[in-house]
From TrEMBL:
UniProt entry tagged with the keyword Secreted: no
Gene3D superfamilies referenced in this protein's UniProt entry, alphabetically: 1.10.3210.50
CDD domains per the UniProt record, alphabetical: HDc (cd00077)
SMART domains: HDc
Organism expressing this protein natively: Sorangium cellulosum
Gene Ontology MF terms in the entry: hydrolase activity
Record-given protein name: Hydrolase
Classification via InterPro entries: HD/PDEase_dom, HD_domain
SUPFAM superfamilies: HD-domain/PDEase-like (SSF109604)
PROSITE patterns, per the entry: HD (PS51831)
Domain HD: 24-128
PANTHER family noted in UniProt: HD_PDEASE DOMAIN-CONTAINING PROTEIN (PTHR33594:SF1), SUPERFAMILY HYDROLASE, PUTATIVE (AFU_ORTHOLOGUE AFUA_1G03035)-RELATED (PTHR33594)
Keywords recorded for this protein, A-Z: Hydrolase
UniProt key word Hydrolase: yes
Length: 213
């Protein structure tokens, strides 16, 4: 990968990734690092995992865009064009494309290969834990969403609604992604990150309730 990865990074640096801090170059770097760790633990082919992780969000469609479910397919198509332009081994391209297409939560594509499961888990793990909390509020800010419902912060008398309240997104999606992880290593890490998020919500309840422990 020493020859290829600088080319992947250069491609991302030349790509307009938009103004979403949850999908900036740092996001790609974290996903790649996690994907490599999962691949080593699970025995996945790094020559498929690494390019798929680097290029998984090559076409970034905003969360509230009606084309959101197409983003991973568009990213896979763009990735194949790029990989062919740098003469990446042709025989690996179908599995790379599938791993990119299947990583998306909104696309609803079941990963058929170990490598696709690794990339999907790596991307979903980045939505959990401390970094997941930061990303949740960053995206909420971009979309004009308030932190929580001041009348009913934890949806005791209303349905969860992450279009209006950022912390509702924990329950609408993020805790569900922790339960959807496909690899054993991913599930272990997902459980740790989800527990941290629950602890955060417990602390938040104390602070917004005016309690001093």
């Amino acid at each position: 990968m020493k020859h290829w990865e600088p080319l992947f990074v250069k491609k991302l640096e030349a790509t307009d990734l938009g103004d979403d801090p949850a999908h900036d170059l740092a996001h790609f770097t974290r996903v790649v690092a996690t994907a490599k760790a999962l691949a080593a633990d699970e025995g996945a082919r790094i020559e498929v995992v690494a390019p798929a992780a680097w290029l998984h969000d090559l076409v970034n469609v905003p969360k509230n865009d009606p084309r959101r479910s197409q983003a991973s397919r568009l990213s896979a198509e763009e990735a194949l064009v790029f990989l062919r332009s740098i003469d990446y081994p042709e025989g690996l391209l179908p599995d790379i494309a599938h791993a990119i297409e299947a990583h998306s939560y909104s696309a609803g594509i079941e990963p058929r290969t170990l490598e696709a499961r690794v990339v999907q888990d790596a991307d979903r793990l980045d939505g959990l834990g401390a970094i997941g909390i930061a990303r949740c509020f960053a995206v909420g800010g971009l979309m004009g969403v308030r932190f929580y419902d001041p009348q009913d912060p934890f949806a005791e008398r209303r349905p969860w609604n992450d279009r209006e309240n950022a912390i509702d997104h924990f329950h609408v999606k993020l805790f569900k992604t922790a339960e959807s992880l496909k690899t054993a290593a991913g599930r272990r890490e997902g459980a740790r990150r989800a527990e941290f998020m629950r602890q955060y919500l417990d602390r938040l309840a104390i602070e917004i309730g005016g309690e001093i422990p």
